[in-house]
Amino acid sequence: MWQLKAEHVRTLVDAKAGHSEIITASRHVAASSFDLGTSTLRRAHKCHLEYLTNMGVTASIAVAIIVRDKLWGLIVAHHWTPKFCSYQMRMAGDFLAQAFSMSITALLDGENHSQHRSTLDLHAKLCDQMTSQGLNPGLRLRALVTNTPSLLDLVPGVCGAAVIYGGKVAVVGTVPSPDVLATISQAIDTHWLTLGGGIGRETHSWERMSALLPDAPLSCDLAGVLAIPVAENGQMLLFRPELSTTIRWAGDPKKYALREQMTGALHPRASFEIYADSVRGQSKAWHKRHLDAAAGLGLLVNDMAFTGESGEVDQTGGDVGMGMRLVIGLHILYSLYIHYYS
After folding, report:
1. Which residues of the chain have pLDDT under 70?
2. What's the pLDDT score for residue 54?
3. CB-side exposure of 125: number of CA atoms within 13 Å?
4. Are 266 and 258 in contact (CB under 8 A)?
5. What is the CATH architecture assignment of 2-85?
6. pLDDT value, residue 310
7. pLDDT for res 73
8. What is the rounded CA–CA span in Å between residue 66 and residue 266?
9. Pick from 72, 119, 61: which is nearest to 94 by CA?
10. Which class is domain 107-243+281-341?
11. Residue 79 in contact with residue 9, Cβ under 8 Å?
12. For 214, which DSSP code?
């Protein structure tokens, strides 16, 4: 992959042609000491050549699509007979790929900015609901699941949410049974305790709850959970349903490329018949922007839920609204920093 990031265009004129050996000026310098990883003249791997031969392909060209310094995709063209692509044609393909990459980047940035604005608006509305419940932390936290909007609106695809604090549980939407919910909460606390290294209680997600509870049977259709720490022993949990899907592979992915025992040479699989693989017990993926939105709300909730709990606000003048606006302003600055610099 790193070769395609360094050299965006890779061509193969004739897969059946013989390849020239590297001749060094001195017999004391081995040909294998030269790194041709970024050279357009380097030969293709024998396994790849055999793979093309199995498909009846003789020539190929691949153009990398780089988005945010990562390999986003490839544009690949095959030819049945030997085909030479001129330098001008290769540069034209690279130029089109770069223009396409810029368009994708612009679309992703626009989507991220829109989602970020929506997240900040939702955070502000949730804060208003918390402040309307007075200074009781339990009532403030309960407002996150009893009003509209709620925690269900924080991340797309969430079907249920729970707030656990002070031995009490408030839920909204589809959530596990009380016994299973208590088991999940205890397992998350155990996970946070075992992290160590100064990490402690941080927002974390699981796409498979079986990874969190490998030995406990989950008698529900929920598969994913996102946990947000609250105070020292509280939690906000977001649940996602199971996403049953079928992946169609070009050949059985469990059957890897063959390797000769004597020489160690690799050979590609000979069969590319469609192989269907069912995926169960897994939810839709939690992306970084989802974790950022949840972590930002967690910081905000921890600051606001316990403001004035022991009379701190009254001692500074009693302006609860001013304190809340200050917390929200600091949260917005933190969110902008995370969005643009993480």
Report:
1. 1-2, 196-200, 216-220, 246, 249-264, 266, 269-278, 307-342
2. 83
3. 14
4. yes
5. 2-Layer Sandwich (3.30)
6. 43
7. 92
8. 29
9. 61
10. alpha beta
11. no
12. T
